[in-house]
Amino acid sequence: MGDLAKIFKAYDVRGVVPDELDEPTAEAVGAAFVEVTGAESVVVAHDMRESSVPLAEAFIRGARSRGADVVHAGLGSTDLLYYASGSLGLPGVMFTASHNPARYNGMKMCRAGAVPIGGDTGLTEIRDRAAELAGISGTPSGSLIEKDLLSGYAHHLRTLVDLSGIRPLKVVVDAGNGMGGYTVPAVFEGLPIELTPLYFELDGNFPNHEANPIEPQNLVDLQRAVLAGGADLGLAFDGDADRCWVIDERGESVSPSVITALVAARELAKYPGATIIHNLITSLGVPEIVREHGGVPVRTRVGHSFIKAEMARTGAVFGGEHSAHYYFRDFWFADSGLLAAMHVLAALGEQDRPLSEVVSAYSRYHASGEINSAVADQGEALRRVREAFADRGDFDELDGLTVTGPGWWFNLRASNTEPLLRLNAEAAGDGKMTAIKDEVLAIVGKVSE
Fold first, then answer.
1. Per-residue confidence at 309, pLDDT binned at 50, 70, 90?
2. Is 283 a catalytic residue?
3. Across 439-449, average pLDDT
4. Which CATH architecture has domain 152-251?
5. Across the strands, what pairs with 15?
6. CA 254 to CA 267: how far, in whole Å?
7. d(C-alpha 233, C-alpha 342), whole Å
8. Helices (H) and strands (E) in the chain, counts
9. What percent of the chain has a predicted confidence (pLDDT) above 70?
10. What is the CATH number that goes with domain 256-360?
């Protein structure tokens, strides 16, 4: 039995296999999931990691031992699992460790309709009940149905963004040996897209590079391929394909804040006056552009549970995070990297300009990107930064410390899982952004010395 206290995080389950997460653990969690949620039926999917099939099968045994019927979707991306949960009206569990290295695995859980289960919405109770059920195996009484949902998922995405009439586009996709290699071909089939695939072979050992597009070194192969092939754009997905990163025709990264603003403008054209959610480290340009397009911007903390909860509360049509997670009301308020990518393809393919020109209208500020600093005494570092900027801007502590001055802002917040402080800074000019960033990092650095 694994270490439940260690592997149950704020939003999901994640740990090293088999030291922290093993089959008996997955079986106990399966039984606990059914008991806590009261589910009569459950849908389960898994990614391409070597440990995913045995862990999913163990979870299914546990769920069936408590009388639940199980729909086993087999291979899938995390957003395919959300599609399954939403379209079938069932609680769901996805076995994946997203972008983490091969030795990790985990579970993302949701209630029927893809409603997320987090620490304060059932995950803690599932953990505690699983601990009580450790080592207890029951006889499976629930049924098991294997169901291929890939074609239904692909069809559903294509009903949300119609790409059939776009001009022909040359697109390079780097799946990082993750689940994008499974879902992208199904969604793009028959569309006016000339697809150049990179690392579409499903391989949970990630032999080419980490399936984490937020790290610049993992985008190098995609950037080279876009330039070499004269492609219109490049797309990079993480391991479970719920995040998507965009590269323009020049091989340059497009900020997720810019993508958030672009998709928001498209959704507001469809739903005039609607609410758009953005987290507090997206660009100042996002709420500005939302207002200019007649929408209502709402700012939230970082993290998918906060985004989804606020979307449900406000009825928002779209939400974006600077980590390249994008959420859609028409997709059960859940996130889908591929659906966001389809909006970009539509915006590009509906006119003749290159992507760099299309996105320039949504890029207004200079950003530092997220910078991590290892700091043992995070409270002291935050106190010193607060003191240094006491008379220079407005303070906000929605999530960490946000300081906003004339034409600039920064946010400094603690990681939920590591002894790190994360800094994001932005300003109208590159020089000002660099000065603010360097000043905050210097203060933080003195505390960590």
1. confident
2. no
3. 88
4. 3-Layer(aba) Sandwich (3.40)
5. 105
6. 19
7. 12
8. 15, 23
9. 99
10. 3.40.120.10
CB 111 within 8 A of CB 91: yes
111 DSSP 8-state letter: E
Class of domain 366-448: alpha beta
Closest CA to 24 of 4, 10, 41: 4
Spatial neighbors of 233 by CB under 8 A, at least 6 apart, are 169, 171, 172, 226, 246, 247, 248, 249, 344, 345, 348, 355
Terminal C-alpha separation, the chain: 39
DSSP-assigned beta bridge partners for residue 366: 427
Helices (H), 271-377: 285-292, 304-314, 337-349, 355-360
Residue 417 near residue 359, CB atoms below 8 Å: no
Q: What is the pLDDT of residues 182-236, one digit of tens each?
A: 999 999 999 999 999 999 999 999 999 999 999 999 999 999 999 999 999 999 9
Which pLDDT band, with edges at 50, 70 and 90, does 417 fall under?
A: low
Neighbours of 168 (CB within 10 A): 10
Give the 3-state DSSP-derived string for 121-135, with helices as H, strands as E and coil as C: HHHHHHHHHHHHHCC
Q: Note the maximum CA span of the chain.
A: 66
Cross-strand pairs, 355 = none
What CATH architecture does domain 4-148 belong to?
3-Layer(aba) Sandwich (3.40)
- What is the C-alpha separation between 447 and 444, in angstroms, rounded? 5
pLDDT, tens digit (0-9, with 9 covering 90-100), for 24-75:
999 999 999 999 999 999 999 999 999 999 999 999 999 999 999 999 999 9
Q: Tell me 119's DSSP state.
A: I
- Whether the pLDDT of residue 334 is over 70: the answer is yes
The residue type found at 234 is G
Q: Where are the domains of the chain?
A: 4-148, 152-251, 256-360, 366-448
Token code pair at residue 106: 């985990």
The rounded distance, in Å, linking the Cα atoms of 30 and 34 is 7
Residue 303: closest CA among 283, 323, 274, 288: 323
CA dist., res. 235 & res. 124, Å (int): 36
Q: Which letter does DSSP use for residue 56 in this model?
A: H
Q: Tell me which of 41, 65, 85, 98 is the catalytic residue.
A: 98
Instruction: Say how many C-beta atoms besides its own lie within 10 A of residue 85's C-beta.
Output: 27
User: What is the rounded average pLDDT for all residues in the chain?
Assistant: 95
